[in-house]
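Quick one: co-fold with iron/sulfur cluster.
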Amino acid sequence: MFRFLKLLGKNLAQGPSTDPFPAKEAHTPERFRGRVVVNPEQCVGCRICHHMCAGGAIRIEDNEEKTGYNFTVWHNTCALCGMCRHYCPTKAITLSTDWHNAHTQEDKYDWAAHYSIPYLACAGCGAHIRMLPPQLAARLYAHSPVDMTDLLKLCPSCRQLAAARREEISNDTHEQE
Ligand code: SF4
Ligand code: SF4
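Sure, here it is.
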């Protein structure tokens, strides 16, 4: 009995060991995998996240006018696995620490985030394009004399032309030296 009273007194003096949720926010670790968020400014529309998503939670479709694409993340089917974040070449998609995911059965198909992302205009011909992922461009044009930042803003045809022209100029310069 004495041991019990001693333990009870100690615990009362220490106070609760758990968070007082819902009276206050619960502690969330920094590496907690919560609701998926997308930064439209960084997304290049490569669809890698869509192909990697085990939960089938990501949909990327051209809009009706073909001037951009609609990016949808269905929180209802997201398994919070983090594969989209791991494979995204621009770090445009990530998992937040927001764990407030409870929703009613009726809301399950509305429990989604929608982003409308415009295409870029090709700096060469003005055609609508998705920007080339910088990591892919770095591998494709590792030995090209063309400035990488210029290449990223070109459509595939203009990119080929720019790379060919720069190589031609570069070869001429070497021959003259
Ligand atoms: S992997 Fe990243 S850059 Fe590619 S579509 Fe998904 S969010 Fe956008
Ligand atoms: S965390 Fe996993 S399940 Fe959720 S959207 Fe990303 S890849 Fe899909």
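If it helps, The beta strands are 36-38, 58-62, 68-74, 93-95, 112-118, 120-121, 128-129.
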